[in-house]
């Protein structure tokens, strides 16, 4: 029965929320929610969390990563235990991880074996516009395309890839098309000894046979999905329900977390533990931030250091706490429920001494706001950007190559809209006038209900047309998107 997969309310939630709200000081609480785990052996605990395979490099040239990637119909279980018709990259959901290093030349031989057009968008990568996989460059059913690009220096971090065809992105991702990208730095400032985990968070809603429940757009559910964004009641980590990660007391793990959900925003917490937030969309930042919880909006990534601060043999969970991103009229009845995402189990082995962590990881140099040549206002309302629906033949913003600009993003409605810009990473200056407490590279920012966020961006390279849009997939597919054109400076003629 599929009901056994339904997410259940965790009993510690209410207590935890009370503690969180009363604990203004970071790291101020040490709450004994660690429960004794089931009999665990002193040996290292095996994860049940399955990591997606890494795309196989078929090149023998140093510094070149050449891979084959196909999107095709597949018979597999998007809902664990129920094989149905799905879409998959190279036959797996999540798709295989593209692992590269800064400076690598990447060649992806892509084949579209789907019965419909698609693209692959390399979300967050700073690469030429014709390689961006935007809706401007669809790849028809049965067609092939070679994506080729170089990974810029200084961009080590966690990214992801997904289809981006006009109006069909939400459908194709719900059918199983998404995968991670890890860009590594040969001189990573974090110790290589930290065990690394990749967590791709998704949710889905299923019909009784286990196939994705994608509502008729004219049905009441279809209308709600269009407004709220399609949320599912089954929460998955790497396609699994409640997998286990084993940890030893004292150990520190490095988690790369990606939100590929169409609409769900995660408010992540591990009861009884704090999290060390060390990286954002574009990689590590200067100093770790100790947090009780962290918000992860659609398409955002974070790197977290999870410290094994619990006693041997105990266990806790990674949870998503209630978060009200909704318009009051369509807010789901059960929005105030926490969900468990995975179980963190401590082995019985005695604690190990925690590894030394660097105080400074990577300097993120501030973009020079004294050289700003344009200030733009981007107004987000329901399904519209600056009052307009996406038009592939219209350019909404024209910028010059080399320009540094401040974009003020105003959300004028009563639900959150995560704003994403293709191709260029930006820095958040302030939210409702409150300066951002730390500096990092971002390509998406959640703009809360009636909030104004200012970001600074530099168009240092890559002329062409770039999308910007809300990353709630239903909003994007219904045209909550615009086009930025970055143009080279005019050529001066000699008289
Ligand atoms: Cu993941 Cu146009 O974005
Ligand atoms: Cu993107
Ligand atoms: Cu939106």
Description:
The protein has 495 residues and is mainly beta. The chain has three domains: 30 residues; 331 residues, Sandwich (Immunoglobulin-like), CATH 2.60.40; 119 residues, Sandwich (Immunoglobulin-like), CATH 2.60.40. 6% of the residues lie in helices and 39% in strands. The strands form six sheets. Strands 1, 12, 14, 17, 19 and 20 form a six-stranded mixed sheet that branches. It has a six-stranded mixed sheet with strand order 11-10-13-18-15-16, with no helix packed on it. A hairpin with a 2-residue loop joins strand 26 and strand 27. The longest helix has 10 residues. Bound molecules: CU-O-CU linkage and copper (II) ion (CU) (2 copies). The site of one copper (II) ion has 5 residues, from loops. The site of one copper (II) ion (CU) has 4 residues, from strand 6.
């Amino acid at each position: 029965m599929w009901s056994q997969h339904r997410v259940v309310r965790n009993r510690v939630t209410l207590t935890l929320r009370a503690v969180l709200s009363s604990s203004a000081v970071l790291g101020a609480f040490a709450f004994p929610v660690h429960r004794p785990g089931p009999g665990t052996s002193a040996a290292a605990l095996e994860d049940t969390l399955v990591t997606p395979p890494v795309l196989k490099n078929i090149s023998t040239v140093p510094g070149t990563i050449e891979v084959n990637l196909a999107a095709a119909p597949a018979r597999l279980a998007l809902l664990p235990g129920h094989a149905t018709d799905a879409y998959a990259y190279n036959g797996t959901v999540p798709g295989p991880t593209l692992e590269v290093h800064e400076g690598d030349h990447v060649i992806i031989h892509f084949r579209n074996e789907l019965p419909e057009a698609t693209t692959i968008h390399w979300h967050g990568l700073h690469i030429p516009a014709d390689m961006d996989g935007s809706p401007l460059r669809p790849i028809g059913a049965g067609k092939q395309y070679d994506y080729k690009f170089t990974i810029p220096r200084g961009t080590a971090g966690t990214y992801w890839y997904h289809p981006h065809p006009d109006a069909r992105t939400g459908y194709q991702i719900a059918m199983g098309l998404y995968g991670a990208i890890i860009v590594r730095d040969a001189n990573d400032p974090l110790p290589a000894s930290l065990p690394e985990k990749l967590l791709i968070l998704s949710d889905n809603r299923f019909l009784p046979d286990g196939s994705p429940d994608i509502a008729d757009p004219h049905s009441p559910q279809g209308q709600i999905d269009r407004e709220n964004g399609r949320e599912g009641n089954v929460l998955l980590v790497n396609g699994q329900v409640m997998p286990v990660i084993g940890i030893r007391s004292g150990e520190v793990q490095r988690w790369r977390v990606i939100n590929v959900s169409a609409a769900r925003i995660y408010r992540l917490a591990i009861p009884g533990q704090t999290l060390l937030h060390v990286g954002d969309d574009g990689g590590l930042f200067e100093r770790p931030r100790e947090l009780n919880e962290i918000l992860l909006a659609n398409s955002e990534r974070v790197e977290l250091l999870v410290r094994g601060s619990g006693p041997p043999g105990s266990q806790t969970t990674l949870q998503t706490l209630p978060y009200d991103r909704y318009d009051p009229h369509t807010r789901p009845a059960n929005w105030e429920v926490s969900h468990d995402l995975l179980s963190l189990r401590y082995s019985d082995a005695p604690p190990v001494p925690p590894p030394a962590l660097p105080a400074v990881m990577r300097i993120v140099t501030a973009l020079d706001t004294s050289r700003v040549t344009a200030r733009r206002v981007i107004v987000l309302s329901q399904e519209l950007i600056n009052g307009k629906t996406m038009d592939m033949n219209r350019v909404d913003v024209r910028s010059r190559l080399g320009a540094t600009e401040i974009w003020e993003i105003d959300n004028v409605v009563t639900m959150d809209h995560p704003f994403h810009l293709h191709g260029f990473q930006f820095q958040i200056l302030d939210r409702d006038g409150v300066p951002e407490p730390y500096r990092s590279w971002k390509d998406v920012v959640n703009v809360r209900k009636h909030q104004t966020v200012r970001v600074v961006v530099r168009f240092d390279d890559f002329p062409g047309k770039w999308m910007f849009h809300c990353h709630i997939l239903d909003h994007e597919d219904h045209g909550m998107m615009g086009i930025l054109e970055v143009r080279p400076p005019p050529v001066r003629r000699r008289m």
